[in-house]
């Protein structure tokens, strides 16, 4: 990814632990307990750091290890609220900060996709439109807390989705298998046996690949935006050139040192820890 995406990666050192406060979670395989939105996680320390960070998976909080705010945390903490800590402000200010954070997180995720789209040579016919939309999205993310909470995020995401779909069509043209095999958009592939499958140039937008066996699969040049890769096995799979793949998606999957990835993401640390 190009240099300008630096601030689209979470930087906990510059955040006030907003994901540990603003977001709700339910007791499950991903979280050891229930927590409503706006209530600090009991593991959050006074310095805004996680008290069990090194033991999150062992303590039943694997969901925390796959999350990334795309840099929304530091923007809301340091820019939108000018470095004001939710702990020291009024209850109203704290609520406003936790309301703003999920909005900015969605805008930053869009900025990630739009920025990546601009790196795809095949999408050059829509680069001007992508650039304009990225600039407008950045301007929205710079809004005041009141402007952000009033923003119609679904409408903006829909506008972006039209452009990202066109980007995908251009990027995948002339690659991979033909016809129905290439279109797996929104497909229910939970637990699917896709070992060694030829999915080059396929669209897997929003596909449910939970616990799918993708060992050794060819996912080169595939569109993976919104694909659910929780517990999917990507051991030795080839994702070279795959686009709209995010670090949270990979963090939720399983893989190996032999899994080939695009340069925009990295091998999750816990992959190396597999037996």
In short:
This protein has 275 residues and is an all-alpha fold. It has helices at residues 19-22, 62-65, 72-80, 91-117, 127-141, 145-149, 153-172, 247-251, 269-272.
Principal-axis shape equals globular
Q: Would you tell me the structural class of the helices and strands?
A: mainly alpha
- What's the alpha carbon Rg, rounded to whole Å? 19 Å
Note the beta-strand portion.
under 5%
Q: Give the number of helices.
A: 9
If you average the pLDDT, what whole number results?
A: 92
Elements, N to C (H/E) = HHHHHHHHH
How is the biggest beta sheet arranged? none
Query: What oligomerization state is this entry in?
Result: single chain
Helical proportion, percent range: 25-40%
Low-pLDDT regions: 1-6
Question: Would you write up a description of this structure?
Answer:
39% of the residues are buried. It is globular, with a radius of gyration of 19 Å. The protein is 34% helix and 0% strand. Helix 3 (72-80) packs across helix 4 (91-117). The protein is built from nine helices and no strands. It has 275 residues and is mainly alpha-helical.
